[in-house]
Design a protein that fits this description.
The chain is α/β, with parallel strands linked by helices and about 200 residues long. About 25% of the residues lie in helices and about 30% in strands. The mean pLDDT is about 95.
């Protein structure tokens, strides 16, 4: 099953699988982003983070493999008279053609080899002083029922980011336990990795 088929199946149900509220870590981190530079939301699904940032005056590109998820975002934006650019593509096939003031993703599930390649692309395509902000499930999430894949190869440790970021300065990198309230998809106590890094 392709990434598009997998996520279209999840997003084809009524409503928003992960709710409409911005991820809390993104909400706590976004105010340092430069409003004159575009923000890129990777693996953005139905668009809650992209919508929030557009609502707060940022120029946003949302990228995801699911055309159904991105269509939900576009319809939501139209209702609220907001603009978010969307691009439907598998993250592993993404070839950046511009730089960004901030790049973010939450709860994306990639094999470590795929994550390493993605981080290389991100480092190359951030503006100086630009930020990378990430929240993903840690390997300890395997024992919890609040969301995420039941596959250790798609879950992470702190070292997966520490060892694969070559040019960014890590401002925050931790494994912690949070309480998720993100629709039906993410609900309850969860073990996560949180990262903020900056290109200096």
């Amino acid at each position: 099953m392709s990434q598009q088929e997998f996520w279209n199946k999840k997003f084809s149900r009524d409503g928003f699988l992960y709710g409409t509220k911005v991820n809390q870590f993104i909400k706590d981190s976004y105010q340092s982003f430069n409003k004159s530079q575009k923000v890129l939301c990777l693996g953005e699904g139905e668009g809650r983070n992209a919508f929030f940032l557009a609502e707060h005056g940022y120029n946003v590109l949302a990228l995801d493999a699911s055309n159904i998820g991105l269509n939900k975002l576009s319809q939501w934006c139209k209702l609220k008279n907001l603009e978010v650019e969307t691009k439907c593509i598998d993250i592993n096939e993404w070839i950046p053609n511009e730089k960004y003031g901030a790049i973010l993703f939450t709860f994306m599930h990639l094999e470590i080899v795929e994550l390493k390649k993605l981080l290389e692309k991100i480092e190359e395509n951030l503006f100086d002083k630009g930020f990378l902000v990430v929240e993903v499930f840690s390997k300890k999430q395997i024992n919890k029922n609040s969301g995420g894949p039941k596959d250790l190869n798609l879950l992470y440790g702190v070292d997966d980011f520490k060892e694969n970021l070559k040019t960014l300065k890590i401002l925050k990198l931790e494994e912690t336990v949070v309480q998720l309230e993100e629709g039906k998809g993410h609900n309850g106590e969860a073990s996560v990795i949180r990262l903020i890094a900056q290109k200096l």
